[in-house]
UniProtKB/TrEMBL annotation:
Signal peptide: none
GO MF annotation, one: sequence-specific DNA binding
Any GO BP: regulation of DNA-templated transcription
Keyword terms: Membrane, Transmembrane, Transmembrane helix
Keyword Membrane: yes
Official protein name in the record: Helix-turn-helix domain-containing protein
Length: 263
């Protein structure tokens, strides 16, 4: 019942948004690949994940071109299913929207971009909300034992709602990341790292050997590192300015910046 009530409130807020804004949109992305979208005066969105199926659009006609769904109407409610990389939820949209990322409560969050506007617990799920943004990335790890081994109860995350000062929320999330470790294919890895470590350098060297540009799958083969490890390193390298993420025809390539090619 609490989960149903929370979902009804999310739907109600999405339906009321058009009354106050000329152009609005809410995207709810669930860890299992379910995506629900509520739009008003938004002409297109990028589909999230791969192998998108069961697309249903109410209130408007639509056309799918590549990875883009084009809306032909003022308002629309969209649902679909897709395949998401394990522990990765990422979306980049043509316009600034509100994005709610819902993952299992007890998950260990290793990376968030941008800083979320709220962090709540909804029916056994963490609901991480990002407002007025076009790009969102959430990296997390979840196992069935997380709820039992985690030293942080949902009450801590509820407390984050009360911390309206964004700096306090930042330090709260930082404290969690600093004190938790994730286990990735039998290897423990620090979640907070400063500067380049050996794995960062391995990924950088692999991109250099590929002529300064490579894909995630190519780098996994070259480095023999787990896919999630390579993905996280690439995100760190992008954030640090060593690598640029380039999208071409629905595919993502990672390009070494010219400043670092000769190093």
């Amino acid at each position: 019942m609490p989960r149903l009530l929370a979902l009804l409130l999310l739907l109600l807020s999405a339906l009321l948004l058009p009354l106050f804004h000329s152009s609005t949109g809410v995207i709810n992305v669930y860890y299992n690949g379910t995506v629900t979208v509520y739009l008003y005066n938004v002409s297109s969105i990028n589909l999230i994940g791969t192998n998108v199926t069961c697309i249903k659009v109410e209130g408007a006609k639509y056309v799918v071109q590549g990875n883009t769904l084009i809306i032909q109407g003022k308002s629309a409610t969209i649902t679909y299913r897709s395949a998401l990389p394990k522990g990765v939820i990422e979306t980049e949209q043509p316009e600034n929207l509100t994005v709610n990322v819902l993952i299992p409560a007890g998950s260990s969050i290793t990376y968030l971009y941008p800083q979320p506007s709220s962090f709540t617990v909804v029916g056994g799920l963490y609901n991480i909300t990002f407002e007025n943004t076009s790009k969102v990335t959430v990296l997390y790890t979840y196992t069935q034992t997380n709820l039992h081994t985690s030293s942080f109860s949902p009450a801590f995350f509820i407390l984050a709602i009360v911390l309206s000062d964004s700096s306090l929320l930042f330090f709260f999330l930082y404290y969690i990341r600093r004190n938790k470790r994730t286990k990735e294919e039998g290897e423990k890895e620090e979640e907070i790292q400063i500067g380049l470590d050996e794995r960062d350098k391995v990924v950088l060297d692999a991109i250099k050997k590929s002529g300064g540009t490579s894909t995630l799958s190519e780098l996994v083969k070259q480095t023999n590192l787990p896919k999630t490890t390579v993905y996280r390193r690439l995100k760190r390298l992008v954030a640090m300015g060593y690598v640029e993420e380039v999208r071409e025809k629905g595919k993502v390539r990672y390009v070494l910046k010219k400043d670092y090619v000769e190093k």
